[in-house]
Amino acid sequence: MSENYTDMNEEVQENKKRPVLLTVLCILSFIVVGFGVLGVLFSIIGGQPSAEEIESTYNLSIQAASDMRDQKIIWLAEILEQGADLVAYQQHRYWSVLMINALTMITGFVGVLFMFKGKKLGFHLYIIYNLLSIGGTFLIVPSHMVPMASVIMNLILSGLFIFLYSLNLKWMNK
């Protein structure tokens, strides 16, 4: 009788063990979200850049783009110019961008933490996190300023991670 109980107990413990894929995905996601949280914290500590700092950063990027054009690397010059415009636009809307980034990172962290603990709610929060990380920029920045290559790359990576996380949904409860 006790042998039967031991077998059932071992089977229940095996079912509760977190899948290796889920553990790996959560660790990778914690690293990415952790860097995002650090970025938000450093932005808060550094404060909003002054108009002079924004202009200086913009001019440095435009100069780098000009150097690329001189070297006939046109595609990189265009990326640098578009990036300079985007960063300057975002820096003028510092607090709005910071709040969206903070909300995105908190949502991502809680989502991954819940999935790590085996809660399906984490998967749904993780989807919201990905939608915010992809679309959050569009809440502040005009769409013509957003580099489509970065949006497409974000969509691909987000879709891949969501798919891989979905493979572990059967292990998660509630």
Quick overview:
Helices cover 80% and strands 0% of the residues. With 174 residues, it is mostly helical. The longest helix is centred in the N-terminal third of the chain and has 27 residues, at 20-46.
Strands, helices and their partners?
Layout: H1 2-16, H2 20-46, H3 51-70, H4 74-92, H5 94-116, H6 120-135, H7 148-166
Helix pairs in contact: 2-5, 3-4, 5-6, 6-7
Overview of this protein structure:
The chain is mainly α. It has a domain at 20-47 and 94-166. Helices cover 80% and strands 0% of the residues. It has seven helices and no strands. It has helices at residues 2-16, 20-46, 51-70, 74-92, 94-116, 120-135, 148-166. Helix 3 (51-70) packs antiparallel against helix 4 (74-92), helix 5 runs antiparallel to helix 6 (120-135) and helix 6 (120-135) packs antiparallel against helix 7 (148-166). The longest helix is centred in the first third of the chain and has 27 residues, at 20-46. It is elongated and about 60 Å long. It starts with a helix and ends in an 8-residue tail after the last helix. Residues 7-14 have low confidence and may be disordered.
